[in-house]
Amino acid sequence: MMKADVRRDYYANLGLQPSAETEGIKKHFRRLALKYHPDGNPGKEREFKAKFQAIQVADEILSDPKRRLK
Fold first, then answer.
1. Domain boundaries, the chain
2. What InterPro entries does the annotation carry (predicted)?
């Protein structure tokens, strides 16, 4: 479980507005996960690994109402 970092904009990592609902966050994360997953981009794993990890952390933080930053 990652600790929320107040200096990071998790909404920007997912390309969402702070008013996004939990269900919208999940849907958008799934779409981005398919696009940026390193296994789905052979030969470009290094490029996509950092992006995938960033959206993964953002989803983890924003999907939990107790940890969600507004």
1. 20-62
2. DjlA_DnaK_co-chaperone, DnaJ_domain, J_dom_sf
The tens digit of pLDDT for each residue in 1-34 reads 666 777 788 899 999 998 888 899 999 999 999 9
As given in the structure block, the two tokens for residue 24 are 């919208």
Q: What is the DSSP letter of 7?
A: T
The number of CA neighbours under 13 Å toward the Cβ of 42 is 0
Given this model, what pLDDT does residue 69 score? 55
Chain position carrying tokens 């983890």: 60
> In this structure, are residues 32 and 54 in contact, taking their beta carbons and an 8 Å threshold?
no
> 61 vs 28, 42, 49, CA distance in Å?
14, 28, 18
pLDDT value for 22: 87
